Protein 1
Amino acid sequence: SAVQQQFSHLEDRVEITRLDANMMLRQLCSKYNWKETRAVVFLDPFGLQIDYDTLRMLGDTGAVDVWYLVPVFAMYRQISGDGQINEDGGPRVDAALGTKAWRDVVVVEEEGQTDLFNQRQFRSKRAVDIAWFEKVAKERIGAAFGGQILNETLPLGRNGIQEFSLMFACANPSEKAKLAAKLAKAVLA
């Protein structure tokens, strides 16, 4: 492997696994004594695979810093322009945010034309944008990490579309850990 060839001196510190990221991270959270160990996790999911419960477990360690490439566009895409929440993707957004409350805000009913019986017709439409999902994701991740999430984010994407927001959350509440947040702020600036 590349680790053996290029970093043989670190080989005993590297473990390569083929598991679902949620399962692997949850095992990691329960495996170590977090009073003696620190860690940094970089989450770059394919779509909406990272569950909020996993983020909460990482935050509960009090020792794991997380860089999370949050798939805000994938969340936004689960609502069609005419206000329909995707049947398959909606539950993935529920799991990623750890709540269904977003569903109450993302669609609005708009008055349309009157029908033949002079009754107002209503139509649904999407009421939020990608920036809204970034804000909600930041609030939810912050809650999982005891409020220790940087306000700064780095929007990333292609063709002028913000597909992701890079966010940094720190689980360690100690003063010494503030250095990690300072470094992260410099990266995101």
Protein 2
Amino acid sequence: MKFIDYLFKNIQFNPNQGYAMFYYHKGEVFTKCLGKLKDKDSDEITLDSNFRLASVSKQFIAFAIVKLVNEGKLAYQQNIKSIFTDLPDYFENITVKHLLNHTSGIFDYENMEHDENIQISDGDILTFLRNTSETYFTPGSKYQYSNTGYILLGLIISQISKRELNEYIETEIFKPAKMYNSKVNLEGITNISNRAYGHIIEKDSYIVKDQYWCSATIGDGGLYSSINDLKCWCKYLNSSKEFQDMKIPNLVGNYDEYGLGIRIVKVNNNEFYFHSGSTIGTNTLLLFSVDLDLCFLFLTNINGFNTTRIKELLVEFLMNEEC
């Protein structure tokens, strides 16, 4: 396949890198799996291996919020102070929509004081935010990507639905999308079958490094899924009424790539939608387009791999192909 040849010509894959890849374009299909789930004695990675999705998880959080809005249980312009009344007063000026499209200006939790040996939970983010007194900028005036915002959205899902976030997502999203092996990970509790553990390269050695102090949060990146389940997700998402809202870009300043939990790119007047993810030991990419009859999914269990570069190469390839 032309794009796959182009991809492997322009991307340097680590020979020890484990990954699962799926590419579909206009009836042609390419799949490839390489490496082990954990160590040399573990099972091989397959299209059913479950990787941590990192920020690709944000699509599912956004979908749940849009679903609650469509059900009349929440509103895009609802301020966050009305949901969590013990947050500082400045949350009266921050809406659900601000959180969804990264225009809230709330502080990054990654900068909070922490113990490297103790993992924080989503609930700890509320404690962190209670002790803040301002935002980086006036809410709604600027785009700035925020993991904190999506953790807060996950907490809102639980608060509004009166259900645990993992139970809500697995029941209300994974099940109807036929993503039967996907999980919301509660580290140390959830049993994730065929789990692909993250790895880092340290002193030329390829070692398991799957967790650190902020790896246990859910809303910003704690979902696990496989290539086969994500294929079901792309189909389900595209046919859903929620997606109609998710793919409307924010129009703050000159930045209009981000909608609600999804990025929008135009290639010769055709739209495709994607999100990438990166965390310790794991990098991910989900990309699809009905206009271009295209789907690309990539999950790898190694740190420092630039999945956004794959998206850039695909855009270059499509621009030339569609001319």
Protein 3
Amino acid sequence: RDAMMRGIGIDIGSTAVKAAFLDGDKFSFHIQPTGWNPKESAESAAARLLENVESPENIKITATGYGRKMLECAFKTVTEITCHAAGASFMYHGTETILDIGGQDSKVIVTDRNGNVRDFLMNDKCAAGTGRFLQNMAVLLEYTLDDFSLIPRDAKIQPISNMCTVFAESEVISLLAGGTPKESVALGLLDSIAKRASAMITRISSEGEVVFTGGGALNSRLAELIEKHLGRKVIIPKHPQYAGAIGAALIASSQK
């Protein structure tokens, strides 16, 4: 890698704006809530990364994510499928299957050994299996998202039969009212997301390790449950929620 490679990638998601700055061979990161004005949040994230940089006007910016078209200072916009593939391949070289669970959607991407996209599946029509679904359920359980990773090892899984957010909410409320332990319900919710993710993966990918990215990958219990259903190793890279931003920064740095 050319030591002078520099570029910024901004992944404008539904819940958070993730920004990555590649400067030579080092990355720096910034994350902030998307809020009601994605354009403003993305501009402020870019400005934050460029604060102490000499001649920032020479640094190209690539935007990705659902709000990518809003960032006027971007030199280029690239789909999140391409950016996630590039970012995950960079973080875990040789990966061929990527699972990304974000706030608004979940996707599975199959690449070749160089990170070029061969196939993908996306669930963006329904909140089930996404960070949004888990956030809604956390409110009912009086959990923070971190609490889902801290469910005791001996907790029993309470199966949740409904993945539709509205029906799952009433199912959770009646289970809790009937005295089912909170951690069993929480584990059941994670398990239902894991089942759904595993089914998506097996539709387009039959073997090998899976690299897990997106905010969902910050939940180690979810990764374990996916691994159990899939019978394949699930790897969480070091900065899982920045995969799209890293891919976008790599693309930006290669622009002449």
Protein 4
Amino acid sequence: DEIRYGLTDEEGRMNINRVDQNLLKSLIELAGNITSMEALDIAASIIDWRDGDDEILPGGAENSSYSNLSSPYLCHNAQFGSIHELLLVKGVGDILFSKLEQYITIYGSGKININTADSFVLRCVAEAYSPDSREAVQAVVERIIRLRGAGNAFVKPSGSAILKQL
């Protein structure tokens, strides 16, 4: 048996308790290789799972959705206690979860660290908020990775400072 250990910056992942629906949709669509509409519905269900109300977002799921299952349960209506709780959310099965698991966390402030996030996480963020083409987004992500590889950390991680470095 081999024992492995190490440290990971949780801020390099997406905090499923804090990220918005747009970023969740981007993550689910890209990692799960599913349609934009399916990803939007799953993202809405995640938001519904963690919010404190019983109002269903379009495409989402609250108590009424889970109480009609063959083994019914209640929507959590609070923050996720572990990433594995995501498996209870409508639309998230074992296959999708296995594709998301390495990119998500429940720890940290919810701000993604541009210095430690891997290229896939950066791509999800860029695609969620950029009107640019996928090719343009990928070029920006590659530029970030190159700058980091050359030892050029983003010391002032504000939007305008990052744009100046890029």
